[in-house]
Amino acid sequence: MRTLVAFFSAEAGTTLKIAKNLAARLDADLFEIKPEQPYSEADLKYMHPLARCNREKIGRKDVPVAGRVEALSAYDTVYLGFPIWYGAAPNVVNTFLKGYDWSGIAIHAFATSGGSGIGKTAEKLRPYVQGAVSVDAKLVHSADEV
Question: pTM of the entire structure?
Answer without folding.
Answer: 0.90
